[in-house]
Design brief:
The chain has 229 residues and is α/β, with parallel strands linked by helices. It contains seven helices and twelve strands. 30% of the residues lie in helices and 24% in strands.
Length: 229
């Protein structure tokens, strides 16, 4: 029996209508869909990807892939996840693995495809709309234009790292910004135009370009900010 194909599919940032037509068709035709989950319980599975999948009304079987949201034992978690995928590929199944946003932009699939390539698994990647692109649309302001550059960072170590990046004539996107506290004071000091959003594309979406609105706000994991150059 020949091995099945591994297909990485970007689901988009949260709104189920933002998945590409090609991505949706790939999910419908796959034999099995794996979605990343940070915790797996008998009655509760924590997964933002599953929330999107549930709204797409796909009949393909969907199975959680345990990827804890921690840097501890990361390689082992990804290896275990890939072994689970590999077992299904060995049965000749075409297996899709989904990621919120884009499949290869700060995503789980970026780690898995390296393991697949090392074992000569046939792969296909279908891109999706990344969250910062959807954020630009929500803010109704160009993310970057003309000769201005764009820099994207995730999980910054400190505000000094962000301040250094802002010295250049560039727009800065900060993802996974919840690792830092007191964004209100930092943004007020910078006195730059910005657009903050959380849970983009979902019913819980919240956004603001007013620094005062962030003074007492708790920043969730699924949030990002565009600081304009």
């Amino acid at each position: 029996m020949s091995l099945g194909k591994l297909i990485g599919v970007g689901l988009g940032p949260g709104d189920p209508e933002l998945i590409t037509l090609k991505g949706l068709n790939a999910l419908k035709s796959a034999d099995l869909i794996f979605y990343p989950a940070s915790d797996i319980y008998k009655s509760n599975t924590k997964s933002f990807s599953l929330e999107i999948l549930d709204q797409l009304e796909i009949e393909t079987e969907c199975v959680p892939l345990l990827i804890p949201m921690t840097g501890k034992n990361r390689d082992a978690h990804y290896r275990n996840a890939f072994n689970k995928i590999q077992n299904e590929l060995a049965k000749g199944k075409n297996v899709a693995v989904v990621s919120e946003g884009d499949a290869l932009f700060y995503s789980t699939f970026g780690y898995l495809i390296k393991l697949a390539q090392d074992t000569n698994v046939e792969c296909q990647v279908i891109p999706g709309v990344p969250a910062f692109i959807a954020t630009g649309a929500e803010g109704e302001k160009p993310v970057t234009e003309g000769n201005q550059t764009l820099k994207v960072i995730a999980r910054p170590n400190n505000f000094e790292e962000i301040e250094e990046a802002l010295k250049e004539n560039q727009t800065l996107v900060v993802m996974k910004m919840s690792v830092l506290d007191n964004w209100h004071d930092f943004l007020k000091k910078q006195n730059r135009s910005f657009f903050y959003i959380e849970r983009v594309g979902t019913a819980q979406q919240y956004s603001t370009s007013n620094v005062q609105n962030l003074k007492l706000r708790t920043i969730p994991y699924f949030s990002l900010i565009i600081i304009y150059g």
